[in-house]
Specification:
This protein has helices spanning 3-21, 68-80, 82-103, 152-218, 224-258, 263-267, 289-297; strands at residues 51-52, 108-120, 132-144, 282-283. The chain is mainly alpha-helical. Strands 1-4 form a two-stranded parallel sheet. A two-stranded antiparallel sheet has the order 2-3.
Length: 303
């Protein structure tokens, strides 16, 4: 590299450094501001809504719907559903691991005792006497304690405890989700019954119209075109009834699957009544279960 080229490069570098030193960063601060929750008006939108201090639903929240059959179905699902059994098994496994990790932090004391008695035959006795009995008694004790100088055992216990808590939260979340799914499927089954009744009534009405149109056609009052229109209405009503019947059957099967049973279980469920839900309560503050899970799953520092 020539000296001229080197001087040019150094000149450019020095110029850039001088310009950077003269740069003014004023006015580049963020203009965003945190909103005050009290300044957000929602009185008109939430007018008449009862505010509750609770943020988590009750474990048996569905009892407020006032349907004994729904109560029995949800309890059956929580007892027999494979998903709930898997979640419960994971929670128990994590809890056992936490107990085991906690036990490692404490001293252990082992003790054992034994006694044995043997008879020496004459041909085995060097003295030739034989028929001699020997009794051996032993007792032992052991004490063990690992000093947790660096806190590794405590960190392992805290991590296992966090996993156990997270597994329990997952189990509660699975229980809440399953109960909500059963209640939703139960409501869908009730709606399917209503749709089936409406389709059945509509088919009866169109058949009466078709019978009346047939008599009017025979009397020369209506034309063939009007009679064919009524026939098309009857065909449409029959198709709607078939769709409603399929929807009703699917709703029964879906509910049976949530219960962990076969399709025949859905046919045993009586027609749901209209649910009388209590007033919807909006909590005054919200807590998300995903944040609780994240906190419990977070291992302590150093793990």
């Amino acid at each position: 590299m020539s000296s001229k080229t080197l001087r040019s490069s150094l000149t450019l570098v020095l110029s850039a450094m001088i310009l950077a030193g003269c740069a003014n960063y004023s006015g580049l601060d963020t203009q965003g501001k945190n909103l005050d929750a009290k300044s957000l008006k929602a009185g008109q939108s939430l007018n008449g809504v009862t505010l509750s201090p609770a943020a988590w639903p009750k474990s048996d929240w569905w009892t407020s719907l006032g349907d004994p059959q729904l109560d029995g179905l949800i309890r059956e699902a929580l007892r027999d559903s494979p998903d709930m059994q898997i979640a419960a098994a994971r929670a128990h496994q994590a809890s056992a691991a936490a107990y085991a990790a906690d036990a490692e932090r404490y001293p252990t004391l082992d003790a054992s005792a034994g006694i044995s008695r043997s008879r020496l035959a004459k041909d085995q006795d060097p003295l030739g006497q034989g028929d001699a009995y020997a009794t051996v008694r032993n007792i032992s004790a052991g004490f063990n304690y690992n000093f947790d100088l660096w806190g590794g055992q405590r960190d392992a216990w805290e991590a296992a405890l966090g996993q156990a808590r997270a597994a329990e939260v997952d189990r509660q979340a699975a229980q809440l989700t399953l109960a909500a799914d059963v209640a939703r499927a139960y409501s869908d089954l009730g709606q399917a019954h209503i749709v089936y009744d409406l389709a059945s009534d509509d088919l009866k009405r169109t058949r009466q119209m078709l019978d009346l149109s047939q008599r009017r056609l025979s009397a020369g009052i209506d034309s063939q075109y009007q009679f064919q229109q009524t026939q098309s209405l009857e065909a449409s009503s029959e198709a709607s009834l078939i769709d409603a019947e399929k929807r009703l059957s699917s709703a029964k099967i879906a509910l049976a699957v949530l219960l962990g049973k076969g399709p025949d279980r859905g046919s045993e469920i009586a027609r749901p009544k209209v649910l009388q839900a209590s007033a919807v309560a909006v909590p005054s503050f919200f807590r998300q279960s995903c944040l609780a899970v994240a906190r419990t799953w977070s291992p302590p520092a150093g793990v």
